[in-house]
Every structure is written in structure tokens, then in C-alpha cells.
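User: hey, got a sec? need FGD2 protein folded
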Amino acid sequence: MQEPEEKKIALELLETEQAYVSRLHLLDQVFYTELMKEAKNGKTVPEEVVKMIFSNISSIYQFHAKFFLPELQKRMEDWSHNPRIGDVIQKLAPFLKMYGEYIKNFDKAVELITFWSEKSPPFQELIADIQKRKVCANLTLQHHMLEPVQRIPRYELLLKDYVRKLPPESPDREDAEKALEMIFMVAKHSNAAIAEMERLQNLWAVYQRLGLEDDIVDPSNELLKEGPIQKISTCNNSTSEKYLFLFNNMLLYCVPKVIQVGAEFQVHLRIDVDGMKVQELNDTQFPHTFLVSGKQRTLELQARSDEEMNDWIK
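Assistant: Yep! Here you go:
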């Protein structure tokens, strides 16, 4: 007699979980433990660096090895009497929020590995030595570290499939659907963590271009648009090249620096968005011009095209 489809998927979940736990064991008990030991002996890199690379991998490993995998194993051994996994996955779901921290840290971790491998040959040698072992299957540390990032989407796919294949009268239907909903929320939570990380990285890059003026650096700011613009000088009918950064709360009117040491731009003027008015000017001499008037002052600006002007005004 053929196994029911939903059981096959539940078994696949168990098998991939076993493989995943051994991958986590390798990350936590082998890479992290051995790199930490050498760092404590002062031979490779500062201990802090090793901690930063591995983030909260130990908690993730303990959770899967001591709780989730044993619960799944118990359930699959007992499948003939109790064909269900929905309730076990519901217990798992809230703990998956732990992944937010690991995922947010992932890019930084990979950068640190690259940086310290160049800076500290003993660190690089130790990693290379562990990577040569059979348990690593010819894959790099970075490759193994990607596994937790991909695990939640994998649960989501397997569970979706499981719910689809469940017979309508299955005792697990209600639990499994609820579990899927919970996993979906967690996946969204980790995607939001990644998006937030990218936003902050981009914002930081903008602040560096502006020379890190401390009254401008604010993590809650959002950059809406940036680009070159011509400033019209009414007294001598000429234009000069400037650069604008429009944030959700302020417009920075900048001058490109000739000698780019550190910053790319110098902030000449800040205009608060609060109380700002913008209007198009039909100037025959200077096409695509618009007026920005704020509390601090008024600027007459010329874009490169009508389309660009409308973009700024919007």
C-alpha cells in the first residue's frame, strides 16, 4: 500500500530537519567553538569578532537539536496512531523570530569573515582547515552560514504542500492551516528585518557622502529622492550646478565638493519639509524650472527635463 501524500511530506520535513540540525551543529559546535577557542588564546582574531560573525547561532542550534527535531521524530514514529504535525509546528513558529537577528546580521558576518581572513592568516588557516574536513562536504563556511537564512522559506514551502495534500476530513487540517499562517507571519517578519537592514545601510551610505554632519544623521529618516539640479541666480541670469537630497522631513541643498576627501557634498542649506511649498514656474528663458519655498528660504531650481521636474515636485 502506498504512503499517503501528506505523510511523505511530513517525512521530508523530518529528513531535512535532521540534515539541518547537523549543519547547525557544524556551525555552532565546530566552527564557532573552535574559532572561539583560538580567539581566547589570542592567536587569531578578537573574541568579539567571532561572536559578531556567529550572532545567535547557538540559540538556534539548541532550539532545533533539543526541541524541534526530537518532537518531530516522536511524532513520525507515532504516525500510525496520531497522523499530525500541525500542533508541533505551532509550537515551533514563535521561536523562529530568533532568526530575525541572525538574518539581519548575515551580510555583516560575511564581510567580517572576508576582512579578517585577509588581516589574520591564522584565522584564515583555521577556517580552511575546518573546511577540508569531510563533514563540510567541500563547502565554505559562508555557504553553511546561508542555511539558516533559507530554512524558514523551506518550512513555508513544505507546510504549504502538506496542507494542500491533506484530505479534507484530516484531524490535522485546522492545526496545520493555523501553523502555516504562523510560519507565513514569521517569514514576513524576517523579510521585514532584511528590508530594514538594507534601508539603514543605504541611509548610512548617504550620510557618508554628506560628511556625517551629526545633526543630519538620524536612523528614522527616509531618503525619497536625490540628484543634480541647476540653481538659477536671478541677479545675473546664470545657473550653477547643485545637488539635492530630499528626505521625508528635510531638503538638503548641497554643493558638490571639488576635492572629494571623505564627503562628496557640502550641505549649504536645509529646508524643513514642514510648511514647504513647491510650484512650477513657466519661465521662457529657463525651461523646467520650479520654486521651492520653505521656512528657511526660497530656491529657484532648474531640472534637466520636464519629467525630472515633475518627479521632484511630486
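Quick note: The two ends are 66 Å apart (CA to CA). Let me know if you need anything else on FGD2 protein.
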